[in-house]
Each structure stands twice: as C-alpha cells, then as structure tokens.
C-alpha cells in the first residue's frame, strides 16, 4: 500500500510532499487455509508504473534478506576484524539507549494487537535520543529502513527498546533499534520475543540551518 503525506498552505493553496512510504500487509486467514487476494485493476498509466515499481521493491526486499544473511555468515567466520584507527572516533557504547513501555488498551487495535504506528513512535523516540548523543542537537528523522514486524505484541506486554548508533556518514547517522516483547511469564523467565527491528536515518542542523557533521564512531 502506497502512502503519500502532503501539507497544504491554506493561504496559497500550495501543497508540499512531507513523506512517502510503502506498507506491506499479510492477510490473516480465519481458518487454516490461505487468503487468495484478487489482482488489482490498473486504470491509468500511473497505476501501471506503481504496479511495476511494487514488484521491483518486493524483489529488493527479498534480496536484502539474502545479502544480510551472507554478511552475517562471513563476519562470524572472520571474527572481530574491524578496527577504527581514527583518534577522535566516539565509541558506539556511548550511544546505547534502552527504554521499556507497557502496552495499554489505547495502544492496541480491536484485536488487542499493538498498533504498528505506536511501536514506530516509541522507536523514533529512543533512536533520536541515541543520535542526539553524537550530534548534541535535535536530530531530524530522514528515513526509516527495513522496518519489519517479526511477530505480534499484545495489551499487557512489556516492550523493551534497544537503540544504538551503527555508523555515521558525514551529515547523517544510522541508528539501529531492536524491539523485544515480554508477557508476565516471559518477563519473569527473561524469555523475550523479538518482534521488530528497523534502521532510522537522522540529520541534524545548527542554528543557521546548516547540516551538522557527525563524528566518526568506533564499534
């Protein structure tokens, strides 16, 4: 599903695009069988373009999984091979932030599942605090990459958010966030469920509106 958010100036009637995103849903069957979705009806040239782009985005998503699995396997074989020689590099340990949220009824839909948007809002909060420890300013969220739900969470669950800076790229910084859920029994036994991960990209501006340069980091 494509989502475009615009803001409209009520005086000039001018519109400006604020954000564009694509959300992928899975149809949940009532019984044991699969849900068969009907093909979408393409009515315009723009529809055909978006249809083709959606196929390409799906191909890229599936390719990401294979790429990351390969990188993880290679890094496990080679061990701790990365060292940062830069003198002024900041340890990423300094950027680690953890928070815990209790899922209450207003945070969930009529099925009792936590709203995805609520989880994203909590993730943005903890990630922005992590990024601010490098820029010493108010980080501006520019993009959210690979936001994926690995499993549901429910009313009464404790959600633990762990955020840490993965890397900096001159004027931007990537913060990784991992979300784990616990019900009461899992909390006592310390058996978390990994329900979500994402990578959030931030910029930061100085008083003159210029992009700040982030320091190099040392993992």
Task: Describe what you observe in this structure.
With 219 residues, this protein is an alpha+beta fold. The protein folds into two domains: 62 residues, no CATH class; 120 residues, Thiol Ester Dehydrase, Chain A (Roll), CATH 3.10.129. Helices cover 27% and strands 32% of the residues. The strands form three sheets. A five-stranded antiparallel beta sheet has the order 4-6-7-8-5. A two-stranded antiparallel ribbon has the order 1-2. Strands 3-9 form a two-stranded parallel ribbon. It is globular and about 60 Å long.
Sum this structure up briefly:
By secondary structure, this protein is α+β, with helices and mostly antiparallel strands. It folds into 2 domains: 62 residues, no CATH class; 120 residues, Thiol Ester Dehydrase, Chain A (Roll), CATH 3.10.129.
- Number of helical elements: 3
Query: How many structural domains in the coordinates?
Result: 2
* Rounded average pLDDT: 90
Overall spatial form:
globular
Assembly classification:
single chain
The biggest sheet amounts to: 5 strands, antiparallel
Features:
two-stranded antiparallel ribbon, 2 domains, globular, 219 residues, 5-stranded antiparallel sheet, Thiol Ester Dehydrase, Chain A, alpha+beta, 9 strands
Write the layout of secondary structure elements.
Layout lengths: L1 E7 L6 E8 L22 H34 L11 E2 L5 E6 L13 H20 L4 E10 L8 E12 L2 E11 L1 H6 L3 E11 L13 E2 L1
Parallel strand pairs: 3-9
Antiparallel strand pairs: 1-2, 4-6, 5-8, 6-7, 7-8
GO molecular function: acetyl-CoA hydrolase activity; carboxylic ester hydrolase activity
Catalytic activity: butanoyl-CoA + H2O = butanoate + CoA + H(+)
Keywords: Cytoplasm, Fatty acid metabolism, Hydrolase, Lipid metabolism, Repeat, Serine esterase
């Amino acid at each position: 599903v494509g989502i475009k958010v615009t803001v409209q100036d009520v005086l000039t009637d001018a519109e400006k695009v604020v954000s564009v995103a694509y959300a992928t849903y899975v149809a949940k069957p009532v019984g044991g069988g699969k849900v068969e979705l009907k093909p979408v009806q393409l009515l315009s040239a723009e529809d055909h373009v978006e249809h083709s782009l959606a196929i390409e985005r799906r191909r890229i998503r599936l390719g990401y999984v294979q790429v990351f699995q390969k990188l993880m396997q290679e890094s496990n074989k080679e061990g701790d091979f990365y060292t940062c020689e830069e003198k002024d590099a900041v340890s990423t340990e300094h950027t680690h932030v953890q928070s815990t949220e209790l899922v209450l009824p207003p945070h969930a839909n009529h099925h009792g599942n936590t709203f995805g948007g609520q989880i994203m809002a909590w993730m943005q909060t903890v990630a922005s605090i992590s990024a601010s420890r490098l820029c010493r300013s108010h980080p501006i969220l520019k993009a959210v990459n690979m936001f994926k739900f690995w499993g549901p969470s429910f009313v009464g669950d404790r959600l633990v958010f762990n955020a840490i800076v993965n890397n900096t790229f001159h004027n931007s910084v990537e913060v990784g966030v991992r979300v784990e859920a616990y019900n009461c029994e899992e909390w006592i036994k310390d058996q978390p469920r990994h329900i979500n991960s994402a990578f959030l990209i931030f910029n930061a501006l100085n008083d003159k509106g210029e992009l700040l340069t982030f320091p190099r980091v040392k993992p």
